[in-house]
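Re-running the complex after MR caught last week's input typo. The corrected sequence lines follow. Everything else is unchanged.
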Amino acid sequence: MNDASYNRLKAKYVGLLGSKCKKCGAEFFPQARVCRKCGSFELQDIPMPPTGKVTSYTILNVPALEFKDDAPLVIGYIELSNGVRLIAQLADISPSEVREGMPVRMEVRPLSQKSGAGDPMVGYKFVKSEK
Amino acid sequence: MGIGDLMVESSVGVLRSCGDLKPDRVIVGNMFSGVGSKQEHLGAYLASSLGLINVPAYKVEAACGSGGAALHNAYLAVKSGESDAVLVTGVEKMTDLNVSEATSALAMADNQEYSASVGATFLSLNALTHRLYCSKYHVTREELASFPVLCHTNAVSSPHAMFRRSISVDDVIKSPIVSDPIRLLDSAPICDGAASVMVVSKRNLKRAPAGAVKIEASEVAVNVFGLAERPDPLDYIATRAATKRALAGSGRELRDIDTMEVHDAFSITSALALEAMGVSKKGGAPKDAQNGRFSRSGELPINTFGGLKARGHPVGASGVYEAAEAFMQLTGSAGQCQVKGAKTSLIHNMGGVDTTTAVHILSEVS
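Corrected-run output:
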């Protein structure tokens, strides 16, 4: 990701910004311009709830270039408390302790070690949660 | 060979077998020549290299489904009456990139900003579905490994395959973990390649000395773009829709299909594709593979030249490889890979995780 695309995305990452259909109430992440459920063009921005659970995960040993120093990455397929799902890195959760069904909550963290130096690129990651 | 050499060499092979028949349109299937070779504009590049000036020529892109999408476009051009002979060449040059660069390039198949940019790779997306699938249907890693084992067995007698050696289930399980639970030998390789076919109108049929097969149906369908956003990530709805339409369009049923080329980018994609088509019951495809149902001597042979896994997966070319392989099966020119009595074949090519899926049904011309 270069600086220009990061500047465009930062607020969406940090705010976990999605959309809600004004007509049928369906929620989406990332933002949607058209409702995939009812076809409406009338949607509003809403932040997604910051808590959820891990529904699947993978331990990624061979990441892309930008994440080379972070291997192994623990990647989670997370279902948020509103039922919307997304893919994100799990932070402070070791490959041996990650489990399906594990409750997690969102935190804003540097996206990669590489972006950690100087002014880091930050985004959403998920950490273990009590409930 | 560079990307130009690859696509030209493969195209010359087909033109040579077509005698004096010259294409009136050129379509290239390719995913990432811009990233992989810093080269775009492949349609004009190829047509011009073949001495074909003034014909329409362009590239069609649908990630790893580019080849199937290119073939679909050729079918439409001929079916509409606009073209009488369309050269379709699928090409990918991947090995000028190192592994991390190729990994980044492949990740362009999903929503970059919400998968690759946050750390996921294309392989890790499939790993998420692999784990979900095994949990949901109580399928073991060993059962899923039946797919790469089958493909390697078929590739031994396949002259154009990349890996002409057999492997065992144990080899798959013990191979390095790329993105757990996906092992190296669950994954189709990064490689270079090109494949070509000529799609001709009925009136040109007799001018193809190498023989011909009929395209009975050509269908493309898309799924929700981001894997994470799908109501059920294990449901390959694009595969299901394209297969259903292709069968209906050709007046066929699954039991009429004699051979199948399935997009086995990973062990898990073979299983989910076969189940979405209705070939196996949900959670049942790996067991079917283990029991020999899909072997070359089985009830429904798949990936008869080794599939993506063992023949190789030069991504934008794979869909055209499948078409060329079905052609060989249906014209009795498959050599040691020949499935006896093959009259009808289905080929299945996906871009992304069933994000764009092309299904074609081909049959022998009697």
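None of the earlier attempt is carried over here. Chain A touches chain B at residues 1, 5, 9, 13, 28-30, 36, 55-68, 70, 73, 75, 77, 85-89, 95, 100, 111-112, 123-124 (CB under 8 Å). The CA atoms of residues 43 and 93 of chain A lie 35 Å apart.
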